Amino acid sequence: MYRWAGRRRTTHEVTHVTATNERDISAEHPAEVPSSLGATRRYCSGRNGAAVTAVAALIAVFVGVLPGQALAAPTNPSDGDIASAQTAQQAAADEVGRIAALVASAESDLQRVTAQAEAANDAYLIAQGQLEEAQQAAAGTAAALQAANDAVSVAQADVATLGRENYMRGGSIRGVAALLSAEGPSQLMEQAATLGLLGDQRAAVLDQLDVPPRVQWRLGTDAATVVAAVLCR
Question: Is the Cα torsion angle 125, 126, 129, 130 positive or negative in sign?
Answer without folding.
Answer: negative
